[in-house]
Amino acid sequence: MSGTSLDGIDVAIADLQGHGKDLAILNCDGATYPFSRELRDALKQAASQDQISVSDLSQLNVRLAYEYADAVQKTQEVRGMESHELDLVGSHGQTIRHIPDPSLIAGKYIRSTLQIGDPSTLAQLLDIPVIGDFRMADMARGGQGAPLVPYFDYVVFIDTRETRGCLNIGGVANLTMLPANAEIEDVYGFDTGPGNLVIDSLCRHYLDLPYDEGGKIAQSGKVNESLLSECMDDQYFQERPPKSTGREYLTHVFLDIFHRYSSHLSSADIIATATALTAKSIWHAYQTFIMPNHRLNRLILSGGGAHNEELILLLTDYLGQSNHRIIVETSDMHGIGIDSKEALCFAVLAHETANGIPTSIPSVTGADGPAVLGKLCIP
Fold first, then answer.
1. pLDDT tens-digit map of 254-296
2. Which of 4, 192, 213, 358 is placed for a possible disulfide with 285 were both Cys, Cβ 3.0 to 4.6 Å?
3. What pLDDT, in 10s, does the model give residues 183-228?
4. Beta carbons of 218 and 168 less than 8 angstroms apart
5. Largest Cα–Cα distance of the chain, in whole Å?
6. What is the dihedral of CA 122, 125, 127, 129, to 10 degrees?
7. Strands, sheet with 188-194, edge to edge from the N-terminal-most edge strand
8. SS3 call for 345
9. How far apart are CA 38 and CA 91, in angstroms?
């Protein structure tokens, strides 16, 4: 898995047995490998609003597959695994474009998404079957193609008594709702808006830092309420689920607003306000789209944002306004690593796809039915 934060590649290796609610995840190991500055800059250019040549995009698609292969092989070496011990690889790829709302193309309304890191190349490099390109099957059925993590959340975190939420704060923040004792058709979820993406982009622009480690910069600044209010007026926060978003939308909309305020705000104030934007948009999503139907008992956090102490403090303060007790904890407390959850998710999705089991959830994506996700590439 490599996400919208463009910080690197997360790898998880696990033994998987069973399916659906009977799925067992055994002996999971995770590792993260940062991108080189050169590769990260190339991916950022490809994923931004800036133009990139078709030739460069084609080359980058294959170049990234080599990076994925190196990451898998390094993780096997650390674990002491022989190459033949690995049965299957699930690869999400790097999202370059995500266009969940239909637009007119040559006389027909189309929605699409593009993840690079060619799975056929990866299969040949590893000499292992690879399943990749998970999102398009759901889109072909009229869905948003995202988020896909809710299936994983359902089979791992569902509880018979508690209503739980699973909040993954990567570049984009996405929330899965698991009503107590729910069946899969009762699960719902959506992208709430920015996770780390806006914060990280502003850290790079103003401070030449990759991210705000532990939220220390945000903690030293002051939230500008006018800037925060203008950001919260964005139409995405008012749209009802199912909905999803991506890097191209979030950076295009929010960075312009922050840059307009930069002349009279300190860098710390800018980072503090961006951090508050993530927290408040999550709270707004819960208050607007979830509380009328369900009250959370427990919120389980994962992703890089779960390391941002100021972000979690702000989010906890917002959730405290709900007038009911919500336990906030990380996925580590359930045996799922904060940083390896999404990579493990795509291992699970690949495992289910290899056995012909649909893993898209129409109540999440808006598709007209569930789909078996991904393309199988045989070495």
1. 999 999 999 999 999 999 999 999 999 999 999 999 999 999 9
2. 192
3. 999 999 999 999 999 999 999 999 999 999 999 999 999 999 999 9
4. no
5. 59
6. 0
7. 188-194, 172-178, 164-169, 298-302, 327-330
8. helix
9. 22
